[in-house]
Amino acid sequence: MKFLTDGRYVVTALVLLLFFFSGLLYLYANAGPKTGNNKIVGELKSKQLKILRKLDSEVVWEELDESDPIRYRDTIRTEEGAEAVLLFTDGDNSAEIRLDERSMILVEDTDKISFVSGSLSATGAGAGKLQISSGDTKIALGNSDLKLSKDENKGLNLEVKKGEAKIVSASGENVVGKNQSADLNGGKIEVRVLNLETTAPLDKSALPLKTETAQVRFEWKPAEGVRNYRLEVAKDSGFRTGLKKANSAGTAASIVLSNGSYYWRVVGKNPQSGKEEYSASKNFKLVSWSKPKLVSPSSKEVFSYSTGAAPSVRFQWITTDPAAKYKLEVADDANFKQIAYSNDSSAGFSKWEPKSEGQFYARVRMFSDREGFAELNSDPVSFSVRKSAQAEPPKLLKPLSGEEIGIRIFKTGSFFSWSASKEFKSYTLEISSDADFKNIIFSKSTNSNFMKPEYDWKEGGYFWRVRAAFQGEGEISSSINRFVLKPLLPIRLAFPKDGTELGHPVDGKLAFRWDRPDPTGNYKLEVAKDSNFNSKVVDTTIRSGLGNVTLPGPGDFYWKVSLISPEGEVLVVSPVSGFKTSDSAPFVTPLYPRDRDKVDLDEKESLAFYWETEGKAEAYILELLESDKKAWKTVFKKEIKGESYDFRELYKLKEGKYQWKLSAKYRDSSGALRTTLPLSRDFDVVVSATLKAPEILTPKEFYVE
Question: Where is the FecR protein domain (predicted)?
Fold first, then answer.
């Protein structure tokens, strides 16, 4: 029985068990969709983006498609930006549940839904027996139309648009009728009458966004006796995240917004009771709607071949809206009157098999069934398919020519790749320490178009090429590329910067940003209450340069980021930065220009700056600086009351690097006026046309008789 106590045998057995059960889990997760045996109570009527379902008997979430059945004890959730419409039927009775993004429900039966989180809208028909529960609170839908949301404090908000709904809770029974709302928190119910009626934007509508931001106009009907209104716009149905407010004496107001999903409502004071009343909240989306762009093939690219059929041409374009429809068109003429090929694709990819050589033009058409979204066409791209006497040599793809790579990253996962052709039967990768390839340090043949050489790499410069062997006889060599292996670059913490003072976010979530020396690496984000990281509040691994994490409350924090190898080795660690959050200080987020944006001023009348604030600010200090390669020079510095500013003196700007800084003035708990530390964003100005100072046309001299 010695093997039971021998560490070598025990560790080996545990490792084998780990691989065994991991393999079982992998096979289970990839065994196809799980159908379940529970009773079918409804179906997924429609969806946007990814909708996930977990069966009662399963532990793995799976994606739902339209018309898929919904079963008893299913758990349904929507991810960010997603929406789902579920249809439940029971004889002549039916109910429709619309789940907003980041929402979750548990289906208990055809007439019972357990509401877990987020927000939903429900419509009942016939006798309308649907019952929605949340904890000890039960809501009978009836033949009505209602909206239900749950905030972070587990409080419920109910709005009835049509009919009535009955609420049963620890405090008794209440009936909420048309144009009424109810707040349910801690067993208490407060019912309000909604005399305010909003008109535009419509609920569940989508608005096209042609630039980075847009000024959205909100309208509502006048309410008797109400003189002043307050418009509220937020990113969540509880009106806590990204809340923006605007006061108006009329029945309309405008707010500058970027793309995303928003909820809005109007607040007014009832002249009889003196209490504030809320309109029913409505949800809308601002969807980026700018013309698509073909990224492949490149302009005037040549696809050549020497024998056999013409090579395939692969097309790729950027898709900005998942709900949009895209059609690729390839024509023989620049006016697209003679279409040689067309294909519908929402994935942003397509492949064409040309029948002969020639010059062609490609474009992508983007259109939508939604009202107000005009059809847009990409700029046409010309390319040619050409038959040549000899095949083109392979094109070197990775590493890029002149690329500088951290040596520790290169050793762990980098590989060489090049273009392939049916005319070649094999390839030989050669790496040399000199451009003439007199000192070849690595050479190996392969049938594929990529390779990871087994070589003891050192810091320094290298040259590489690929020799391709034809299917018949002979070979051809590619061009030569050079790359440099250097020590790993440090990690620069971008936000929050050391010494920054911020308003504590309403939802506690803060976005940390840093530069990535390895774009494909894993990064460990650590946040603590002390500089020695003994009291960590965040310890997570992220595959990007952005991490959204939740802070426990206002106070002093310290953070750092480490680059982790696939084996878990720490490759490089950033310096430690400290920052502070407080309840009294506003939380300011610069929106545009974004960090490292390229702003083209051609045909623009002004350079717009936008930001948003959580909390109360007295004013903002905006400063624009220009880089002269040695230092930053101030272009202007202004104190501003609103959350946007248009700089119109564009003749003062030229192509180059710029930085804008933003800080907020606020009053602390003692009433003293303070200023937050400035937040900065770097961007480049591109001037396609020359901007000149205004020319004075009035004569300099006047003659009087």
Answer: 74-165
